[in-house]
Amino acid sequence: MHRRRLLLALIAGFFSGVGCACLQLLLWPQVTPSLKRAFLATLTWGSWSAVWLGLSGFVAWELTTLLSGLFGWRPRWPRLWVAMAVAGVFVAGVAFFNQQATREILQPAHRQALGVVAILGVVWAAAWAATRRRRSSLITAGLMALWGAGVWWPWWGAQQAGDERQLAQPLQELSWDLQGKPRRALVVVWEGADVPWLLPLMDGGMMPFLQSLWSRGGWGHLRTVQPFSRAASLATWATGCSPIRHGVVGRRAYRLPFLADVPVSLLLKGPWPSPHQLPWRLWQRAAPPPPKEPTLWEALEGLGLHSAVVGWPFPWRGVAEAVPWEQAPPLDPSWQAAIEEAVSKGTPKALPTLQAFALTAEVGLGAAVMIREKVPQVLVVHLDLPARLRPLWAGDDPGGVLALAAQFLDGQLADLWALFGDADTHLLVVSPYGMAPPRPWDRLLANVGLTGKWPVSPKDSPDGFFFLLGPGVAAGSRVRGARAADVMPTLMYLLELPVARGLSGRVLLAAVDENWAASVPLRLVAGYPWPGP
Length: 533
What we know:
The protein is an alpha/beta fold. The chain has two domains: 2-157, no CATH class; 187-246 and 291-329 and 377-436 and 454-525, Alkaline Phosphatase, subunit A. Helices cover 47% and strands 10% of the residues. The protein has 17 helices and eleven strands. It has helices at residues 2-26, 35-69, 80-101, 108-130, 137-157, 195-203, 208-214, 230-239, 243-246, 296-302, 333-342, 347-374, 385-393, 401-420, 440-447, 487-494, 514-519, and strands spanning 184-190, 218-223, 253-255, 284-286, 307-310, 378-383, 425-431, 464-469, 478-483, 499-500, 524-525. Helix 1 packs antiparallel against helix 4. The N and C termini lie far apart (67 Å).
């Protein structure tokens, strides 16, 4: 009897894995459909799911039977049609959840295919329920064969969204002409900062330099990428394109040589830990691929402007090499003493806090050296101090570490502006995502002691922010409804550079002065030229 139950659980787990294999490959548009790949995915995911999902279902039912026997109730082991119906409903639920969760990062054709698989799962479960009284082996075999063929049909049917990017055009063919001296821009990224965090600090006098500029520039919230992905958020503002176009959808990538020649990133969400959905350890971690669209600094270099990037967290093209933690220089003695005093009441948090400040100081020093030695026309400085410290000290900051972080960032911004800025220089301070408290369910778990933390996090994709200052910016303007992809085209327009038609973002005219908009035309080009190697 136990062997029969185990066999039934393994069969149901196998067919659940076959459906999940199709769902996972639908999240990877770069995997070209073929009969060989469908067979390999069926074999690997099906066998993997049979082991972990089938065995876990078998153990759970055996424990339920054992415990219920203490109360005099003996539940009957489900028959084959029940197990198969549960497998179909399970796959349908996973498909529907991932269809909703990938609204902004997956091609429409593949999202529609996820919906088709969800419908097939429900229909398949209903078919098993309708034939439960007919113990025909022919019907059983037919339903199993239909499931194997049916779940893979949407993968073939999902038309690959063609690469709509325009080919990079030679510089001389672009219809634009920069008159006079090219404008300059200082772009500072405060990853993890947002307006609800900054405004109280400015009102409290912790950020005097930013506060002195605030009324002279334009600002607004930035709607970030959903679901949250750090790499996707940064790539979206840096390219001005949505994740569907630039192709960066996750912070990690995985190689599955038997399925794809390129690394894949987006993983299927379900009741399992990540990356448990990848079968049999037949994968290796890989660096996430760079965007398929030119970044801000690549577009500038292609247009003939000299740019530099300091502190970028990913090894993308045109980015200076990051400095390892152990090589970060010591902080200024006064700051070192102030930070050590602030973290004295949170000893376990002291080391990561000091490291975060040291790395931020290193990036600022590298930016200053870059300004003096290479004199770029556009300098991008990436700092992630808020993203590191806000989750660490949220709700438990007796020493005022977050206030010190705000002062540190503000002073660093003032120093960089003194070195780089002038009356014709644009300043852009941007954060592609913010931080927010957990949702009510997570708060309940924290209150009853099931989770030990109640930190802020970017988990629910809260809004980031941007602040613009310089020629053409409407003083005191507040922009509503801005997205992370709108930052790049707006900056390109203010620099009097052409805006590519293929960008997903738009120019935020609400932040542009009316006289500037009337005198400076918006020039469009098919695409930006890629810089040389």
